[in-house]
Amino acid sequence: MAKTILIVDDALTVRNLAKYALSKGGYNILEAEDGSVGLAVTRSNTVDLIISDLNMPKMNGLEMAKAIKSDPKTQNIPIFMLSTVASQEVAQQGKEIGIMVWIVKPFVPDKLLAAVKKVLEGIPLK
Asked: Which residues carry this modification: 4-aspartylphosphate (predicted)?
C-alpha cells in the first residue's frame, strides 16, 4: 500500500513541485495551504510523513509541528521543514520540536524524493 505524504505550504507552486517529485515515487499526496489546515488533515487522515513550509498564515510550520509532536496519535510522524529560512537558530528550534530534516528552498526535487524514500524505508539520513 502506498504511503501518504502531506505537503503543507501556502505557495501553490511549491506544493505542485513537491507533489510532482513525490508522485514519481508512488506516494499518495495530501495538501494543505497553512499549518492549521495541515494539522486538521493530519488528525483526520493516516499520514506517513509531513513536508511543511515554515512561514505561513494562521499557523506556521513550527507551531503545527509542535502540535503534531505533542499528540500521542501523531507524534511519530516524521516532519521535514522546507523553507527559505536557513538560520541555524531556527533550524535548532525545529530540531528540538522534532523536525527530522530541514531543507532550504529552492530545493532539488529528486533530492527531496530520495530523502523521503530513505526516511520511510527506515534508512538513516547522513
From this structure: 53
CA Rg value for the chain: 13
- Domain annotation for the chain: domains and CATH numbers: 4-120 (3.40.50.2300)
> For residue 57, with 0-12 CB atoms within 10 Å meaning exposed, 13-18 middle and 19 or more buried, which class applies?
exposed
Q: Which residues contact 34 (CB under 8 A, 6 or more apart)?
A: 8, 10, 56, 57, 58, 59
Q: What digits encode the pLDDT tens for the residues 57-74?
A: 999 999 999 999 999 999
pTM strictly above 0.85: yes
Eight-state DSSP code of residue 125: P
